[in-house]
Write a structure and sequence with these properties.
With 419 residues, the protein is mainly α. The protein has helices at residues 2-8, 15-45, 49-76, 79-102, 108-129, 133-136, 142-171, 175-191, 210-223, 225-245, 248-255, 260-287, 290-310, 314-342, 348-377, 381-397, 401-405.
Length: 419
C-alpha cells in the first residue's frame, strides 16, 4: 500500500501535497455528484428551458463579479484558512438546501438562490486552492502535481460523481446534496492538515486597499507579455470552444442522428480521453519541450473543430471526442504549470482569478455567439466558426508560444520543507 501511495504521490513532494491532493479528490467527488443532481433538481422544479439555462448561468456569473476580489484576498490572507472558510460556507449553503428539500419547502427560487450563493463561495474556494500547489512543491514537480490534480478531477468529478449523483437523486431528492455536504466538510478537514507555513502568502502584505491590489495584479499581467498572451489565448479559445459546444446536444441529435445514449457517449469519450492524456503526461513532459506540447495541443484543438464540422457518423464523433479529451487535459496541465512557473508567489491569487475570468467569460460569450450562429446558419456553422477563430488565433501566437512556455518569474525560493 505504501508503495502504491509513493507511486501516486512521490514522497519528495511532501506530506502537505498529499493532504491537498486528498482534499481535491474528495471535493471533486461531491462536485461531480452535484454535476448530475443539480440539473435534475432544477428540472424537477420548472419546465422552462430559459430558467434551466439561467440556473447554470447563475453559478458562473460570480466568477465575473467576484473573481478579481477573490484573487486579491488570496494574496493577502492565509490561503489555507481562506479555503477552509469558503468550503465551509459552500457546505452550509447546500445543507440549507437539504433542509428545504426534506421539509418540502424547496422551489425554483430556493434552488436559484442556492446556486448563486454556492457559486460565490466557489469563486473564493477555487481561486485560493489554485495558489496552494506552487507553494508546496518544487518547480520541477509542478507538472506532476497538476497532472495528479487533473487526474482526480477527471476520475471523481467527470466519471464517478455524475452517475452516483443521478443514482442518489433517484433514491431520494436530498441524498446527493447530503453526500456533497459530507464530501466538502471532509475536504475542509483534509486541508486543515496542511502545514501552516506552506499555506500562507510568502511575502508580508502591505496595508493597501483591496481595490489597489486588484489594479496592481491586472497591471502586472498586462506588463508581463507571456502571461498576458496566455490569458488572451485562453479567453479566445474558450469563446470558440463554447460556441461549438453550446449546440453539441442538438448537433448530435439532429445532424448525426444520435440518441440520448449516444450523446452521453460523447461526454464519456472525452473523459476517457482525458484519463489517457493525464496518464501519458509524465512521459510526454520528459520527452518534449513545453512549447512543443502547447503548440501540438492548440493545433489539435483547431483540427478537432474541423473534424466535428466534417463528421457525419456518431461513432467517428465519439472517436474525435476521445482525442479531444486526451489533448485538452494535457493542455490544462501544461498551461497551469507554465503559469505557475511564470508568476511570483505574491501574484498567484490575482493571476489565477484573472485566468478563471477569461475561462468563464469566454464560455458565456461563446455560448451566446454559438446560439446565434446556429440559429442563422445551421448546427454545423458554430464548428466552422470555432475552426477559423481558433486557427487564426493560433497562427498569431505560434512564435510567441516558445517564450510563453519557458517564462520564469525569477522567484527561485524552494517550497518550505514538508511536515
Amino acid at each position: 500500500m505504501s508503495t502504491l501511495v509513493d507511486r501516486i504521490v512521490p514522497a519528495r513532494m511532501g506530506r502537505s501535497f498529499r493532504w491537498l491532493l486528498a482534499s481535491s479528490w474528495t471535493s471533486n467527488i461531491g462536485d461531480g455528484i452535484a454535476l448530475a443532481a443539480g440539473p435534475l433538481l432544477v428540472a424537477s422544479q420548472t419546465n422552462s428551458a430559459f430558467i434551466v439555462a439561467l440556473a447554470g448561468l447563475m453559478q458562473k456569473l460570480p466568477w465575473l463579479i467576484f473573481g478579481l476580489w477573490a484573487g486579491a484576498l488570496a494574496d493577502r490572507l492565509d490561503r489555507r484558512k481562506v479555503v477552509m472558510i469558503a468550503d465551509t460556507l459552500r457546505a452550509g449553503v447546500v445543507a440549507v438546501l437539504c433542509v428545504t428539500i426534506v421539509t418540502g419547502h424547496v422551489n425554483i427560487g430556493v434552488v436559484m438562490i442556492t446556486m448563486t450563493l454556492y457559486g460565490v463561495a466557489e469563486v473564493f474556494a477555487d481561486t485560493t486552492t489554485s495558489t496552494l500547489l506552487p507553494m508546496m512543491v518544487d518547480r520541477r514537480d509542478l507538472g506532476t502535481g497538476n497532472q495528479r490534480l487533473q487526474a482526480g478531477f477527471l476520475t471523481c468529478n467527470q466519471l464517478v460523481g455524475p452517475p452516483v449523483g443521478a443514482f442518489l437523486f433517484a433514491a431520494g431528492m436530498a441524498w446527493p446534496f447530503l453526500v456533497q455536504v459530507l464530501c466538502v466538510l471532509l475536504a475542509v478537514l483534509l486541508v486543515s492538515r496542511i502545514a501552516t507555513s506552506q499555506a500562507s502568502s510568502a511575502d508580508p502584505v502591505a496595508r493597501t486597499h483591496v481595490r489597489r491590489d486588484v489594479v496592481e495584479g491586472l497591471r502586472w499581467i498586462w506588463q508581463h507579455a507571456a502571461v498576458r498572451t496566455l490569458a488572451l489565448v485562453i479567453l479566445v479559445f474558450n469563446v470558440t470552444w463554447a460556441a461549438a459546444w453550446s449546440v453539441l446536444v442538438l448537433w448530435s441529435r439532429d445532424h448525426l442522428g444520435m440518441s440520448e445514449t449516444g450523446f452521453g457517449l460523447l461526454t464519456t469519450g472525452s473523459a476517457v480521453g482525458g484519463l489517457i492524456g493525464t496518464g501519458l503526461y509524465g512521459s510526454i513532459e520528459r520527452r518534449f519541450k513545453l512549447a512543443t506540447i502547447m503548440r501540438v495541443c492548440l493545433l489539435l484543438e483547431v483540427l478537432t473543430h474541423l473534424a466535428l464540422a466534417l463528421v457525419t457518423t456518431g461513432w467517428l464523433a465519439i472517436a474525435v471526442m476521445v482525442e479531444f479529451g486526451a489533448y485538452a487535459f494535457i493542455w490544462g496541465t501544461v498551461s497551469n504549470t507554465v503559469r505557475q512557473r511564470a508568476v511570483p508567489q505574491r501574484y498567484h491569487g490575482r493571476v489565477s482569478a484573472a485566468y478563471m475570468m477569461c475561462v468563464y467569460g469566454g464560455l458565456i460569450v461563446g455560448q451566446a455567439i454559438g446560439g446565434v450562429i446556429a440559429q442563422h446558419w445551421g448546427l454545423v456553422a458554430p464548428f466552422w466558426f470555432a475552426f477559423f477563430g481558433a486557427g487564426i488565433t493560433l497562427a498569431l501566437v505560434w512564435k510567441q508560444l516558445g517564450s510563453i512556455a519557458h517564462a520564469d518569474s525569477g522567484d527561485d525560493r524552494p517550497a518550505t520543507s514538508a511536515t
